[in-house]
């Protein structure tokens, strides 16, 4: 068990979001290991609040990671399938947007540590982070198409980071890709052994802490104004898709293990359901 996981266990077994001020860095843990850190409505609300708290702390940087063997599998499908109409679905995805907004609006650098799989909205969090470190065994996917929906942040803002053709490819195939592939396309910045994630994060935070806070804030402000927009339009479309009979059917089959998203299949055998 890594030092990160031991610390999470000591802090709490019941809180879905845990914040820890360690002085130079403010750590945030997504703590639903039994659900592979899936993000339900309550967890999303708590995550946005904890990010704001970390960004307002005296720390030099905010670090976000997951407990267990996953960074996050993204939106909790069990939560989404219960939603009755477009307004309720939109409210859910607006909570995801609130998390992204807190990350990109944070005046401090945000470092994401990917300690396992990062899927769907879990992978989209990485698009809003400033530095992404991943373990060698990490893997990634935007598999929403297998469930009859699509990744809003990837399609609205991911193109600026990964390139629009690559963002569309990832959204339309839902393919699974490795940490090495994620680094090549620009989703991940550094790949390190699992046991060295925390050490590498500390070294990066130490470097960042030497830079002028106002200059970092200015860099993030310019990046937000240039690259972070149009997500509201995509959320509206996703909300329409999520209440369709097609999406409900695919989500029910996924929860009953009758279908597997393309991310769980060999890449060369992608097919529709």
Q: Please give the domain count.
A: 1
Q: CATH class, anyone? A: Alpha Beta
Into which percent range does the helicity of residues fall? 40-55%
CATH homology superfamily: 2-enoyl-CoA Hydratase, Chain A, domain 1
Please write the string of helix (H) and strand (E) elements.
HEEHEEHHEEHEEHHEHEHHHH
Strand content: 15-25%
Low-confidence stretches: 268-273
Describe this structure in words.
It contains 12 helices and 10 strands. It has 273 residues and is an alpha/beta fold. It has one domain: Alpha-Beta Complex (2-enoyl-CoA Hydratase, Chain A, domain 1), CATH 3.90.226. The chain has a 6-stranded mixed sheet with strand order 1-2-3-5-7-10, sandwiched between helices. α2 runs parallel beside α4 (86-105), α4 (86-105) packs antiparallel against α11 and α6 packs antiparallel against α11 (231-242). Mean pLDDT is 92; it is low at 268-273.
List the helices and strands and how they pair.
Blueprint: H1 3-11, E1 17-21, E2 25-30, H2 41-55, E3 61-66, E4 70-72, H3 77-80, H4 86-105, E5 110-114, E6 117-119, H5 121-128, E7 131-135, E8 139-141, H6 152-162, H7 164-173, E9 176-178, H8 179-185, E10 190-192, H9 197-208, H10 213-227, H11 231-242, H12 245-255
Parallel strand pairs: 2-3, 3-5, 4-6, 5-7, 6-8, 7-10
Antiparallel strand pairs: 1-2, 8-9
Brief characterization of the structure:
The protein is 49% helix and 15% strand. It is built from twelve helices and ten strands.
Which features does this protein show?
single chain; disordered C terminus; 2-enoyl-CoA Hydratase, Chain A, domain 1; 273 residues; alpha/beta
